[in-house]
Design goal:
By secondary structure, this protein is of the alpha+beta class. It has 18 helices and 40 strands. The strands form 9 sheets. It has a 9-stranded antiparallel sheet, with helices on one face. Helix 4 packs antiparallel against helix 5 and helix 12 packs antiparallel against helix 13.
Amino acid sequence: MFHTLLIANRGEIACRIARTARALGCRVVAVYSEADAGAAHVALADVAVPIGGASPADSYLRGDRIIAAAQATGAQAIHPGYGFLSENPEFVEEVTAAGLVFVGPSAPAIRAMGLKDAAKRLMAEAGVPVVPGYHGPEQDPAFLAAQAEALGYPVLIKAVAGGGGKGMRQVARAADFATALEGARAEARGAFGNDAVLIEKFVASPRHIEVQVFGDGSRALHLFERDCSLQRRHQKVIEEAPAPGMTSEMRAAMGQAAVRAAEAIGYSGAGTVEFIVDGSDGLRPDRFWFMEMNTRLQVEHPVTELVTGVDLVEWQLRVAAGEPLPCAQADLRLTGHAFEARLYAEDVPAGFLPATGRIGHLAFPDGVRADSGVRSGDVISPHYDPMIAKLIVHGPTRDIARLRLVSALRQTQVAGTVTNLGFLAALASHDGFAAGQVDTGLIARDLAQLVTLPEPAPQVLAQAALALTGLDRPGGPQRGFTLWAPLEQALVLRVGPDELPLRLRVLGPDHVTVILPEAEVQAERSAGHWRFDGQPAAPQHLEVDRVTVFAGQAVAVARVDPLDRAAAQGAGSALVVAPMPGRVVAVFAKPGRRVAAGDRLALLEAMKMEHTLCAARDGQVAEVLVEAGAQVEAGAALIRLEEEET
């Protein structure tokens, strides 16, 4: 086993690898960017080395600096985690040339699976079923259109170097093919520097089921499957193991195909073979096809760990250190059911926009595995993925595990930034999901239902009002008053986009009536504890003029200062502003040009995603205030429209 390991990553995966490495007796070396100097993964390490600026291109993608850090600290091996350099074959070769061990597959294995078209040809030769389609080198638009016609619509256009849904378009009819092809190529060119595509038959009721494989360079085994069908815009949201409705016959067929795929390229370490499955008639062994292989540890690997009892990172380190596979296929058993939900800082009502900001408070319930790379007080940076944590639960049955997931999501406390917690809880409670009726279109079909959160209860709003006025604390503002009539004050709260006027009638130091537009709540304190209409106060986190009440869902409530209202009016819909810090990729607006509501005006790249900024109304462009390539802060004015005539 290695005595010193460098982790070439950040965030929750760096923390997760560090814990296993230290449990094995390894000394841990972290690397960090300027933005991560005080990050959790740095605090966990024995030694930490700065490697450059906040941008990944200036730090976590600088293989030369990472290798130099390993050599300077006496590290014997480098674990890449996932993302960044984890699937970069040139980096693997540079690590090996420096006399270090790369914890992962060989460079040839990564190259073999790096391009979707070549990988599918290789898999077909190895006897692994692949989706019908064209995976060849010819890229003439007319030729590709003919291939789509021959396959029969609907079809998928997919970037050969793609990932995360970028460079992918579903096409339902021939008339739309040319436009879709142009869009897919442009997106692929910008994301991967490669605009080549492949054409595949679209599976009508698709499920995304992947198999965890592990190899030692000569032989491989599988650790069963995970279902990753709950996706939004091709991004996984909740994963589970085993897959709902899986049969022993189907599991054996998929497992054998995945092992053939791994052994065909001499795979070493942890990897995932992803399959697209036609779930329209149950799970059948003749209805699954190879999609791609991820030659690294997956984000969702913890669900496999919980149902198999295997620490995959420990296996990675042991095999990289020269040990054979720790067990045989027959030794592995599935036990119970596990779910993982990805908790992100994102504004769900605004279309799942990634969010930034300081996390004022972060707490997870007992009995839940929470893999996180941030702590209370940390800042969600615009330079990286906005993941806060992965919540992983296990139970003896799928239904018990799912109920534990719902409970874990409702008890998790995050304050200081918006999150997708409410959306995740709604998804975990969805009737179709509860019944195991999962496919990749579930979220899109029921999106309106899933993003519509229940209105905060009057008791929750009353608790927020007391917290924001200080009336809930001993010796609060009501102390010292002796009046012939109750003391009363007006207050305006902001809950999401809405403003809520209310009045507080102080009847004594332990009794306040909160008068809302449609309800009255009696707040009473007994033995030092507040109750609202008899219900005990929920946990809360207060920061100056904002309080978050954790009552089944996190309800963030701010106190409105009337003097700030006029300033908040701003220029209204005349200004197009950056919703978050990022880089302006393109500007489509030109001064003097007429635009209609919904027209694309600019493209902003932030947190590994591209966001289209559109006109809020019809009008004429007065000024373009930014150029492509510029870095902008949240709220920065980008484009101004002419004022509307009144």
